[in-house]
């Protein structure tokens, strides 16, 4: 599955992503990704190919360092608090997020828990250019490619962006969560 994602992302020039439950895979550290994959492997009783999945996810992140690419990512603050890994792994993950704020190819927004929401958080999704939206659920990924649906998901992303904070304000939210974690 990770290799399929790598191929999709490699073709894209611009990604718009909404993540409400975990740190986005595009910005995960290897250790954080490992814990996420292990949790899903246990839940789904799927093959134990965690290390291969981690390597593929880390390879996908090379995309972030190509000047012609652009990641527009909004994460709900709750995703920063999710304890899917030990505290020290989460702290390192939050440090990684602090480090990507300000990258030329990344626009990271955090939707604070106390922000007024015009729509409910809903499911996480990824929009690849204006050609495909992938919506994640417990049992499947939905691949949606009709223009009307893509436009709807873009409006959803834009609506979240209105309430999100970016730049130094996003760093402040991330840093506040990081300071609260006892290692």
Explain the overall architecture.
- This protein is an alpha/beta fold and 183 residues long.
- It has one domain (12-26, 66-180): 2-Layer Sandwich (Endonuclease, Chain A).
- Helices cover 47% and strands 19% of the residues.
- The chain has helices at 2-11, 30-44, 50-60, 77-81, 87-100, 147-163, 167-180; strands at residues 14-19, 70-76, 106-111, 125-128, 132-136, 141-144, 165-166.
- Strands 6-5-4-1-2-3-7 form a 7-stranded mixed beta sheet, sandwiched between helices.
- Helix 2 (30-44) crosses helix 3 and helix 5 (87-100) packs antiparallel against helix 7 (167-180).
- The longest helix is centred in the last third of the chain and has 17 residues, at 147-163.
- The chain is globular and about 45 Å long.
- The termini are far apart.
List the helices and strands and how they pair.
Blueprint: H1 2-11, E1 14-19, H2 30-44, H3 50-60, E2 70-76, H4 77-81, H5 87-100, E3 106-111, E4 125-128, E5 132-136, E6 141-144, H6 147-163, E7 165-166, H7 167-180
Parallel strand pairs: 1-2, 2-3
Antiparallel strand pairs: 1-4, 3-7, 4-5, 5-6
Helix pairs in contact: 1-3, 2-3, 5-7
Q: What are the segments in which pLDDT stays under 50 over at least 5 consecutive residues?
A: none
Which range does the strand content fall in?
15-25%
* Beta strands, count: 7
Annotated CATH topology: Endonuclease, Chain A
In percent, how helical is the residue content? 40-55%
CATH top level class name: Alpha Beta
Shape: globular
The radius of gyration over CA amounts to 16 Å
* CATH architecture level-2 label: 2-Layer Sandwich
CATH superfamily: Endonuclease Chain A
Strand order of the largest sheet: 6-5-4-1-2-3-7
Number of helices: 7
Q: What do the pLDDT scores average to?
A: 94
- Give me the strand/helix succession: HEHHEHHEEEEHEH
For the terminal residues, how far apart are their CA atoms? Answer: 33 Å
Integer tally of domains: 1
Structural class determined from secondary elements = alpha/beta
Described by strand count, sense and barrel closure, the largest sheet is: 7 strands, mixed
């Amino acid at each position: 599955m990770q290799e399929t994602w790598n191929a999709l992302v490699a073709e894209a020039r611009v990604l718009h992503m909404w993540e409400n439950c975990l740190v986005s895979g595009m910005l995960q550290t290897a250790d954080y990704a490992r814990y996420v994959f292990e949790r899903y492997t246990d839940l789904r009783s799927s093959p134990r190919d965690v290390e291969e999945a981690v390597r593929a996810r880390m390879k996908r992140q090379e995309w972030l360092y190509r000047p012609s690419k652009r990641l527009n990512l909004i994460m709900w603050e709750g995703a920063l608090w999710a304890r899917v890994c030990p505290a020290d792994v989460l702290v390192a993950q939050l440090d990684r997020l602090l480090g990507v704020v300000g990258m030329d190819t990344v626009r990271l927004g955090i939707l604070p828990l106390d922000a007024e929401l015009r729509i409910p958080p809903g499911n996480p999704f990824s929009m690849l250019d204006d050609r495909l939206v992938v919506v994640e659920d417990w049992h499947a990924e939905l691949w949606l490619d009709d223009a009307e649906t893509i436009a709807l998901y873009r409006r959803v992303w834009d609506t979240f962006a209105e309430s999100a904070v970016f730049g130094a304000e996003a760093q402040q939210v991330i840093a506040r969560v990081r300071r609260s974690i006892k290692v």
